[in-house]
Amino acid sequence: FKLDNINLSLNEKNKKLFEDLKTRPANQDNLTNLVEAQDPGIYDSFQMFTNFIKEKEGLIKIINELESFSLSESSLILTPDDVNKSVYSNTLVKSKDSVFDYKNRVIMVLEEYQEQPGLLDPILETMTRPLVNGVFHLVKALLKVENYQETSLMITLNCLSQILYLLCKVRGYETVSKYFSSDVAVFEPVISFLLKLAESKDDSWTTVFILTLWTSILGLIPFDIETVDTSGLIINKLSGFYMKALTMSSNLREIAGYSASKFLTRKDIIAKGLLKQYLEWCTTVITSQNQDNLDIFLAVGVFSSLSQIFKNGTRADLEPFVEETAKNLIEKELLKELNDSNIVRKFKVKLAEKLGLIVLKPRNQTWRYKLNYREMMTGNEVSSNESSNKQQLQETQIEENMNYDLLEILIDCLLNGVVDKDYIVRWTAAKGIGRICERIDQDMVNDILVNIFGNLEKNEEAYLQGSCLAIAELCKRGLILPEQLDKITDLMQKILLFEVNKGGFCSGANVRDSACYVVWALARAYSPEVMKSHVSKLSTSLVLAILFDKEVNIRRAASAAFQEHVGRQGFFPHGIEIITEADYFTLGNRTNSYLNISLFIAQYPEYYESIVTYLASNRLYHSDISIRQNSAECLGLLVPFNKTLYTEKIIKLITSKVCDSNINTRHGALLGIAYSLVGLKGKWDFEYKSRIIRIKVLESMSQNEKKVLEDSDYRKAFEKSYSEIRYTDYMKDLPEEIKLDILRFPKELNFKGFLKAKGAEIMRNGINVYIKLLATAEISLTKEDFFVYCDILCDNLKHPIIEIQEEACSAFSLLMKCYYPSLAKEDSNHTYEDSSSSFKEKVRSLLKDCLQTAVLDESVVLTRGYSMIISEFNEEVLKENIQEVTKSLLINVKPKKTENNDAETRRISIEALAVIIMKLLNREASLKVFEGEEYTIMKSIVEGFSDYEIDRKLGDVGSKVRESCLKVFPSLMFSLLTFGKPERKLFEEFIEVYLKEILKQLAEKMNKIRLAAGNSLEYFFTKIKKYLEGSSEEDYINNNTNKPSSSQSKPNLKFDYDYISSIIRYYEAFISNFVLSVEVNHDIKLIQHYESIRSNSLIEKQSNTQWLEPSFSFPLVLNFLNKPEFTQSIFSGLIFSIGGITEDVSKISTDRFEAILNQNPDLAPTIFSCVISLFEKNKKDDLVITSVYSTLDVLLSKSSMRKKEFLKYLDKIQRSIIEENSTSTNIHKILICPDIYYNILLFDREDEFKCHFRALKSLLFLIAHKYPVVRKKAADKLYLYLLTLESPEEIDLDQDTVDTVGLILAENDWNLPVKEVTPARNEVADLLKVKLK
pLDDT tens digits, residue range 299-322? Predict the structure, then answer.
């Protein structure tokens, strides 16, 4: 086990004590390492076993030491003859404190064995007997002590009892109690102390638990109880103790019932009438309860103990008590409050079962179906005559004097329990039905089956699940004959797929789980010949449950049942192939089941049609949207196996559901049609989602399991065959009338108002996907349909959910890409009287409407949506209207002073501008298309790096804009360089701005911003590295003058070398610093990321998540702080990290900043200049100024900064602080000022700048500030300054004056109202000779 002392939160002594248990032989370590390397999946199980080997000696040693200590403690009170000498000496356990420590350590180890308790069996007796011996001697000693509660004996007894209790918890009390002493001399002291302890209020419940369990051994003593009970305690008081313990709510109730059953079922106890008295008491307790004296715990204890009694006693002894008990406790209705308790009902049903087993003798039922070893081996059924002759057994008949009325009462209770509302009652009743039916004749079993089958016809979960459990129990025992299996398999075929839609969710998982149990039981109970005729029904339903059930436990249960049939029956089609692919681990991911495993199984014709039909008629309309999505995607993947089934049946079936009244049905139908069309077109990318999901599932497996799946010949053969058909175009086989229906659905749904009714966001999402996939499937559209779809998508842009807007834009983009060229070309062949009627003119009009709405509409939702869609228009349309487009987006890029100022709109507009630039550059390969606006566009995007807008509810909303700029800028720059070739001055300006902003963002506090900045930087320099490594100026000249190059392998450049060379100096500076950082911090491997070249697009690239860690990013970034061109930018970002509220970011950034200042003392003037610059640029901007204050406090707190030459900077800074605070009410900002003024006071006085005087005066003003917390802090800082003075002459005062000021500052309560503290402040000012205006 992982003995993690930190997680255990034990004291240092305990950490040290258990080091002895960590002895690890070298060969064992090598073996463990080998197993871990070969198969991490089984490492935990193997580690548990190996650690058991290592720990068992230590455990036994400590337990024996505890026994020895217990005996030595007992010997102080007991006589030498009463104490068994121990062979162990007290080398470890020497005091009660050490007993407590070692008890904790042993418990910690034993708790780890709850997963595999069987490992303890070899040493269970060795551990239990010493502990029991120690408990016994301590009990004997404590009986001679009057006030035992706080003695070391009692503490030791409790510790040993806790260890024994944990052994019972881990291994089971029945198993552990076998090793308790059964010596006759033990019981009287144990019971005496138990009764004594029970009467006290001592909280030693584990000790009571162990002693109560010990009394259960009384039932095993072969002598008369009176030979043991010399004082009469056992007979007179033990029953009363059990009755009292039954009222408890803890584990004592259970153990008391168990021990009572052992004690009261002794023949001598029964003969004395104690059992009869106990049963009468139990009956009285239950029947006399009412609302005034209701005790649920007691009722549970009574029923539990009665079920134990009738379980552990013999039939002959208990039969006289059955009838009365049944009539009083089973037949009679319980009090409503008692009957509402599922635990009471559970034990009542269990009692009915035990009573029935007493009434009925065990009997041999020759009519019962028996599966013997020969049948399993040969697969042939042995004739009933042969089996009967071989057994030579006669069926025993039910007794003639059987009380059938009593039996009916008991069976009726069980049958009612089978359909109880609680699962635990149904499960208990089902097991009881199985056991009772083993002892009754065939006619009675058939009557019970009729009742159960009747329950299965009711469409209620409780009836179905309980009946399935009962059938499974009967099948396991062969009580259902082969001729009755037809009805069962028909029912199971339906129940395996049972589900009840309850609006927002579906229920029925427990019913399907019990159906899987029935199918599993059928595989184990019946021969292959019997089950052969039922294979087709069960296999298909099981496969559907395996693949498409919502719950992972049901998928796995169905897989287990399927595997059982494959292994025992062998008739399931392609069983081995299926269970290889659909195992416990692969079924854990639902998407993997839908998109990978279903595809593999569907290749077999026996399952294909059932799978497709079930998806199209059921799963596609599920209440869970993710299941609808997965079902639709699966339908698209399955098309290539049988396109005829789709074109003739499936698509017709789905289209009939499109206008259904249920929103889930409509949404699922839209998705199903859309994905099926993509599958018919052969454009569904099998390698995309399903492949990624499969890889994730494989990564979670052990190496052995992964190897089995990856090396599977079945999987390889399937992938090969599927790859040959998956991209085939079958669209021509789809009837034209179906295509027309498909094209009219968006218009029809919109006309009927389904896109604006309740739940419209679901339908809007569905229609977006529908139109998008129609375009992907390339179904021919008319111009009318095109504009109808455009109008629907534009209407979806008005929805406030941004995901719907994004999906609408994605659909619009595909619509433009797929249909604009063809429709525009077709339209060019027509002549229109009115030019506005032409296709192109309508599209231009649509663009203008979008531009107008994006700029002028007051709704934030509309400006977002319409700004987003502008970049999705066709390049030709954008080029013709480039001025209007750029003008509108540039307006939205800048912050507005109106109510519709929105950071999300700015982010969208920046991305739209970037996309438009790249689109047009890719098409035109010239900047002329922008008509001189490229500089304005780039400048507007660069300004987005400085967006720090704060929203009161949402916080730093400007971070979205900054993040967007970081993502688009590198791609935008390379598009400009590749196709546009801007002026070099413009290029260099933006490159420098970009790098400065990157470093600024890398020094910021927000993790997502650092991540975006780091990945942006990596992407940028990856592209640079790619061209620098394969190019030189000579290569450039050779490539452009058609001269042979010295290196034929180097690629031709798309960039001019002049542009690239302007970046080299930045590139070399960055790489040299990053390499230096890698050498210093060996765990940082940044350069390796430059080897992976990423695509030039706006799609989010693979992230290097190390940028999220402050410990990774800050050391790299702050290396540039000493470079003049970057200092201001880095410091501008760093102040937010140092002054932030995130502790780890603030600490790491501060520590690194201080380290840089220590290494570069000359950097201080530059930093002070940066501070002054930030004050000038961000006046009254509390976000920035508060961060500057925090950074300034860190800066001035360093003694190396307190130099006279810095006072000229400090003078300007101090004036700026006073100006900032003059009208400020920001308490967070003002609260930092006392620290700053205190640090300024620590500078040497200088008459020229008067910084010292202004700081003192400012502190005095703050002492009378309106905020109490500011007053208190300012007074504390002034007092601290006076204490640090080496001589009062430093501030031109005498010692008495300083002492007086200090006394005033210390004794006054500065939290009082301002009017009350102002006189004291004025007195301090007068003493310090400071004039306050």
Answer: 999 999 999 999 988 888 999 999
